[in-house]
Amino acid sequence: MSEKPEIVQLGAEVLRQKALPIDDFTCAKFHVLLSDLQNAMLESNGVGIAAPQLGVSRQIIIVASRPTARYPKAPDMAPVAMVNPRFRIVDDNVVKDWEGCLSVPGIRALVPRYRSVRVDYQDAHGRPGRMILEDFPARVFQHEYDHLQGLVYLDRVETNQDIISESEFFKRIAA
């Protein structure tokens, strides 16, 4: 990857492809990609990121819920790199809440997501991991997981009336 990887934007083909699994956890390119993902997410005030957003169609995401300028009310959790993730629904209650995306700047939308999921994944060394995620971190995971399936959050919106400009979103949360 380049020194400062660019986050690809809606319209880029890679965002519509199903990502391939990682099978070599010793490859230097894989570890550089993990580092690039972390750096790009932090520099962009993101709370999660997926490899396709850096133009790499591989099954890697980072979930890193924390308060940021983009999500001031997000709960704190340590960043977790999840390779080849899969999930099961723990709580089938669906909640609509606001989402944005580093690959779709300038807008926010109300998106329905499962309230709680159990995630099985591999860590950066290929070891198995499992987490139960609830509420905002579960939302972040599902959003990033969609990127691995060739979907963006706007594909989940129930009505176009649930899409607003980011400036309007900030007026609403500041009120």
UniProtKB/TrEMBL annotation:
CDD domains: Pep_deformylase. SUPFAM superfamilies: Peptide deformylase. Removes the formyl group from the N-terminal Met of newly synthesized proteins. Requires at least a dipeptide for an efficient rate of reaction. N-terminal L-methionine is a prerequisite for activity but the enzyme has broad specificity at other positions. It comes from Methylomonas rivi. Pfam families: Pep_deformylase (PF01327). HAMAP family: Pep_deformylase (MF_00163). It catalyses: N-terminal N-formyl-L-methionyl-[peptide] + H2O = N-terminal L-methionyl-[peptide] + formate. Its cofactor is Fe(2+). The keyword Iron applies. Its EC number is 3.5.1.88. Belongs to the polypeptide deformylase family. The keyword Thylakoid does not apply. This is Peptide deformylase. Binds 1 Fe(2+) ion. InterPro entries: Peptide_deformylase, Peptide_deformylase_sf. Fe cation binds at C101, H143, H147. The gene is def. The active site is at E144. Keywords: Hydrolase, Iron, Metal-binding, Protein biosynthesis. It is an enzyme of class 3 (hydrolase). GO terms for molecular function: peptide deformylase activity.
